[in-house]
Amino acid sequence: MPEMPEVEGLAQFLRERAVGRALTGVEVGAISALKTFSPAPTDLVGRAVAAVARHGKWLDLATGDDGPHLVFHLAKAGWLRWYDAVPAAMLRPGKSPIALRVRLDDDSGFDLTEAGTRKRLAVHVVTRPEEVRAIETLGIEPEELTAQKLGELLTAKNQQIKGLLRDQSVIAGIGNAYSDEILHAARMSPFALTRSFDAAATERLLEAIGAVLSAAVDEAAGKPAKELKDSKRRSMKVHGRTGEPCPVCGDIVREVSFADSSLQYCPTCQTEGKILADRRMSKLLR
């Protein structure tokens, strides 16, 4: 799933190419992806893109102070495919992985695509992005965190730190991959309970959040949309690297599997050499 650094990379990519361009066509390829009916997608046509913003993992194309916004979330298997010249043929609903096609006045544009059978990509056309409930309820952006604010979030509810980092209503934009990377950088167990964090641990976590995400944003900056996924995979130290050596200590990266996801960690760096069996059985770091 694209997370904050990749979505910010996409936002930068679109700012450079779409801002100032008028939309000449918006074609829906998957009705299930469109979550709103008014304004209609056709209400975007003829309006110029005034700005491109990011809200957590959401992208927002604004068409002026009084114009509608095209807001979308790429979900687990979605992506943005850019064209310098969009195919001339009109999009046929249900015939391809393309959920939405946007055409601009210089013949460029993009598709929103989604692989697989579990369709979760979401497209909203709204007058304000806050009309999307998932945006209205987003937590703090990572770059706005302070030690005091992070401490407040950690003590608000006693839960596993992995879950807190992934909770979009607490901190916006961090998902499964970067939470693994942040906890590895901070040398913390994913199952550590948040109310066990003292001031030193809180500061260490804050530094890891800033360092990991800043490096990832820098890595994504300036890259074409088609290169962002591969760039993300290459930069991972533990996420998605089960069975490989940890680049810090050389221990083998381990995995904990869940129903529809998994996490990766280094026992030496994060759990004092102990192997986490699974979420229910582990009693580590209470």
Please tell me about this protein's structure.
The protein is α+β, with helices and mostly antiparallel strands and 286 residues long. The chain has 2 domains: 133 residues, N-terminal domain of MutM-like DNA repair proteins (Alpha-Beta Barrel); 129 residues, Orthogonal Bundle (Helicase, Ruva Protein, domain 3). Helices cover 29% and strands 19% of the residues. The chain has 8 helices and 10 strands. The chain has a 4-stranded antiparallel beta sheet with strand order 1-6-7-5, with no helix packed on it. Strands 2-3-4-8 form a 4-stranded antiparallel beta sheet, with helices on one face. Helix 1 runs parallel beside helix 6 and helix 1 runs antiparallel to helix 7. The radius of gyration is 20 Å and the shape is elongated. The C terminus is likely disordered.
Low-confidence stretches: 280-286
SSE order: HEEEEEEEEHHHHHHEEH
**CATH class category of the largest domain:** Alpha Beta
Overall 3D geometry? elongated
Layout of helices and strands:
Layout: H1 4-18, E1 23-28, E2 51-55, E3 58-62, E4 69-73, E5 78-83, E6 98-104, E7 109-114, E8 122-126, H2 133-136, H3 147-156, H4 161-166, H5 176-186, H6 199-220, H7 225-235, E9 254-257, E10 262-265, H8 267-270
Antiparallel strand pairs: 1-6, 2-3, 3-4, 4-8, 5-7, 6-7, 9-10
Structure at a glance:
By secondary structure, the chain is α+β, with helices and mostly antiparallel strands.
Features:
disordered C terminus, 8 helices, alpha+beta, Fpg/Nei family DNA glycosylase, four-stranded antiparallel sheet, N-terminal domain of MutM-like DNA repair proteins, Helicase, Ruva Protein, domain 3, zinc, metal-binding, 29% helix
